[in-house]
């Protein structure tokens, strides 16, 4: 690999790492994903191609290469999912739209969500948590499915609560500028109202740090790890899985969760089927 290619690859991977961090991925996940993309970059460069000029054909050829190398189906799926995430990070999700493996389209790996016992354990911990802010964060992630980056950008004005009827809604803005309105559950309305009523500051942010600044993604991740031993993405997966399990139309689930590609939402169908069986 020449010096110019090495520099370009490092820049691309560094940018991908930042994207994953902003999405709330754990350090281990970031390391794994970046390792996959690094291997993909090396494969491309061995064929005198560059990750900065990635095409659908490049991805398809790589999948065929992995098959020829006798990689397992689960390994290929995980690699594909990583490349799919990378394509979204560079605002080119269409790159993976039609990628197939021999006689079969690539499957998405079913997401990890909270099973019933785990959910009850989480709620039990929340009942014992004396921090109204922390409890409100847990309930917001669990009952709206927002990404941590989206949660941290929420302002008080984005939340509309009716404590009397215990109803409400939140306006969420994604990094791409898209907006979506999510209805709030009774449980979440109660926790948010309890938290906001306890606030004595005039900060615009919905969630603030102990230093009265807008809370950061790292702070949320650290809190969830220390107090609840859970990663925020699992709460998001639980929200999506629960909607699919209840029979909500996939297009609606995609809209509520902010999925730009309904194929990403379809992975929860497999998770629901696995749960039933």
From TrEMBL:
Record carries keyword DNA-binding: yes
Family matches, as CDD domains: DNA_BRE_C
Domain Core-binding (CB): 7-91
Claim: DNA-binding is one of the keywords in the record: yes
Superkingdom of origin organism: Bacteria
One Pfam family hit: Phage_integrase
Segments forming domain Tyr recombinase: 109-277
Keywords: DNA integration, DNA recombination, DNA-binding
PROSITE patterns assigned: CB (PS51900), TYR_RECOMBINASE (PS51898)
Matching SUPFAM superfamilies: DNA breaking-rejoining enzymes
Recorded family membership: Belongs to the 'phage' integrase family.
Protein name per the record: Tyrosine-type recombinase/integrase
């Amino acid at each position: 690999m020449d010096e110019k290619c090495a520099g370009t690859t490092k820049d691309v991977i560094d940018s991908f790492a930042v994207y994953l961090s902003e999405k709330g991925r754990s350090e281990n996940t970031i390391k794994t994903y970046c390792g996959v993309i690094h291997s993909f970059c090396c494969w491309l460069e061995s064929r005198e191609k560059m990750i900065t000029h990635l095409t659908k054909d490049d991805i398809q050829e790589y999948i065929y290469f992995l098959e020829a190398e006798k990689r397992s189906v689960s390994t290929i799926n995980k690699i594909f999912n990583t490349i799919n995430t990378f394509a979204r990070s560079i605002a080119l999700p269409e790159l993976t739209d039609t990628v197939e493996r021999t006689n079969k389209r690539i499957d998405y790996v079913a997401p990890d969500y909270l099973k019933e016992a785990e959910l009850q354990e989480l709620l039990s911990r929340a009942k014992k948590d004396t921090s109204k802010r922390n409890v409100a964060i847990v309930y917001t992630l669990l009952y709206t499915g927002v990404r941590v980056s989206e949660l941290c950008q929420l302002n008080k004005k984005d939340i509309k609560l009716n404590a009397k009827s215990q109803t409400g809604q939140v306006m969420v803005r994604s990094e791409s500028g898209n907006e979506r309105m999510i209805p709030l559950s009774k449980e979440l309305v109660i926790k948010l109202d309890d938290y906001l009523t306890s606030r004595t500051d005039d900060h615009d942010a919905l969630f603030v740090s102990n230093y009265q600044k807008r809370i950061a993604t790292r702070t949320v991740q650290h809190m969830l790890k220390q107090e609840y031993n859970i990663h925020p993405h699992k709460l998001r997966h639980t929200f999506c899985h629960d909607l699919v399990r209840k029979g909500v139309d996939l297009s609606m689930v995609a809209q509520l969760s902010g999925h730009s590609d309904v194929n990403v939402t379809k992975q929860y169908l497999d998770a629901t089927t696995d749960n039933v069986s």
